[in-house]
Design brief:
alpha+beta; Arc Repressor Mutant, subunit A; about 25% strand; globular; Winged helix-turn-helix domain-containing protein; WH-like_DNA-bd_sf; DUF2582
Length: about 70
Amino acid sequence: MNQNTIGAHAGIIWNLLNNNKRWEYCDLKKESGLSDRDLNAAIGWLARENKIQFESGCKDGKEYLFLALNFYY
């Protein structure tokens, strides 16, 4: 894995998140077709650039993580 690959994967995730919807990790993984390793690297890339926001918590005994784009006006 190199920076170009991670950047390309971050672009895939960015495009999926660009529909003003909160995504669960497992749904994002399924829709993107990326492995856990590649998805996590892409999320890290976007987080480092402050382009995504995280919401996590626990519901019905299950932990969840939602991802969404940061929008600035």
